[in-house]
Amino acid sequence: MTYTEKFEAIVREQLARLEKLKNSEPAPDFAAMDKIIIGTIDGDGIGPIIMESARKVLGKLLEDEIASGKIELRKIEGLTIENRVAKLETVPQEVLAEIKECDLLLKGPTMTPGKGDNLPNLESANVTLRKELDLFANVRPVVIPEKNIDWIFYRENTEGEYALGSKGIDITDEMSIDFKVTTDQGTKRLARAAFEYARNNGGKNVSIVTKANIMKKTDGKFLSLCYEVAKDYPEIKVDDWYVDITAANLVNDQINSNFNVFILPNLYGDIITDEAAQLQGGVGTAGSANIGNRYAMFEAIHGSAPRMVEEGIAEYANPASLQRAAVMMLRHIGFTEKAQILDDVLDLAQANLDMPGDGTGNTAADFTAFVLDRL
Ligand code: IPM
Ligand code: MG
What we know:
Elements: H1 3-21, E1 36-41, H2 47-61, H3 63-68, E2 71-76, H4 81-87, H5 93-100, E3 104-107, H6 125-132, E4 137-144, E5 149-156, E6 169-172, E7 175-177, H7 184-200, E8 206-210, H8 218-230, E9 238-242, H9 243-250, E10 261-264, H10 266-280, E11 287-291, E12 296-300, H11 306-310, H12 320-332, H13 336-352, H14 364-374
Parallel strand pairs: 1-2, 1-3, 3-12, 5-10, 8-9, 8-10
Antiparallel strand pairs: 4-5, 4-11, 6-7, 11-12
The chain binds 3-isopropylmalic acid (IPM) and magnesium ion.
């Protein structure tokens, strides 16, 4: 294919995706469901260790619901880098089919092959699942009580720089081009989710983050669509910022506690949420929700930490982040009391245990025992 043919194919594919967005499924009513299936996916590296902890904790917290059949915790195997490389599929077909039988997913970190890993150049499993399940909102809360910081990030999760992240074109040996995509439907549904959150949680401020001065088409559209949605929420105070100064503002203690809800395109959201999580105490402390209409997937914000495995210190991995994700999952299905119980115990665990992740201090098993004891 010539590069113009490649480009045409990409454009057609994106236009077809846009058509599909116009007819997406409504969200299920969890309260009315007889049974909610939660698929658990270990992932790679430290994944099995932190997921074992989460399964034990959920098993105890949801003992009655599991016994009555209202909730099923279903282990989904095969989303490992070994299996994915063997099948040469980012998410092997049979694994994806099992995933689609669940309503919710709790997912450990999965490895993404990068340059120099000597592995086939598979797309990120996260990115594939977000696209396959149409999980359009990546919701990441960051709370730092001693600084009066209560942030929540609504990161667009299926478009932007990620929509065609693995489909850039090498024009010649000396030049490559990547693409960024913004659509009305993709942006507005994200913005609406963020504004709904702001409205339902005490009229918080909303800040829109872009680089619309440079990425004039895609970020420009994103910004104006967010303001369009804002018109339906006249009581909410809205402002907008460029992503560079946002990165600075988050570490500016004079003003950072003024921010509440952020709306960001995909890549800026990726970067800014790692920064925010670090301010909260490390990427190991933050949970992350990927919300769509039919499905929702909850995961740790961090990666699979292959270095911890290589150094033989995987048992020191901090399960907190994945369990914060479980808290978000429980809230998502309306189990607010159980969510609060777990959230409070996790606060206690984080205050009492020492988990620097360098092979010293407490282990994941210590963490699990601490939490189980107090549930
Ligand atoms: C995240 C991660 C992923 C992303 C990676 C693992 C593909 O960094 O969830 O923030 O870039 O979205
Ligand atoms: Mg990230």
